[in-house]
Amino acid sequence: MQIRSRFIVLFAIISLTLFASNAYASVKVPVTDTICCNPDSLKVVSVIYPTFCVSWRISLDSPCRVPYAFQVQWRRFPSSDPWTEAIKIYTGGTTISFCSTVNECRAYQWRVRVVCDSIDSTFSDWVYGPKFGMNCTGDKNLKTPGEIEKAGKRFSAEKKVTQVGKIKKPEE
After folding, report:
1. Cα 146 from chain centroid (whole Å)
2. pTM of the prediction?
3. Closest Cα to residue 156, out of 82, 78, 49, 80?
4. Of 45, 43, 100, nearest to 73 (Cα)?
5. Could you report the per-residue pLDDT of 37-77, keeping only the tens digit for each?
6. Can you list the positions of beta strands (E) in 4-83?
7. What CATH superfamily is the domain 40-156?
């Protein structure tokens, strides 16, 4: 009888162990997307004074969080001026486009980052897009790095000439 009761207890322990391990094996713990992934494939889509349009891609694959919005900034190039900024709310998709306007015919730089959460202010890193130039002379708009560099130097030189012209007054 003792052997039989030990067998029953042993059988009960083995059964419970198998049941518990199968129950835990079938329970799936939800994985939360915790990484605020960087945007990629940044490009200038269109530049027609005074409007510029840019685009970038995002990954919606795990472990990336679904974006809440995007913070886009741009400024003159070369410059240490403060950035002009806009927030674009995410509405879906993997390719995001953004258009805005500028006030001057100059070269510009821009950058974007993902805003993953509006509550705890979780952001991706800043990612810089290709520089672009606004040309108001009727010629093609500047897009190549060489054109942008030359334009930056030309704009700086024009600014200096204008300033010198304002300082010197013709003698009467």
Report:
1. 25
2. 0.62
3. 78
4. 100
5. 999 999 999 999 999 999 999 988 768 888 999 999 999 99
6. 40-48, 51-57, 69-76
7. Immunoglobulins (2.60.40.10)
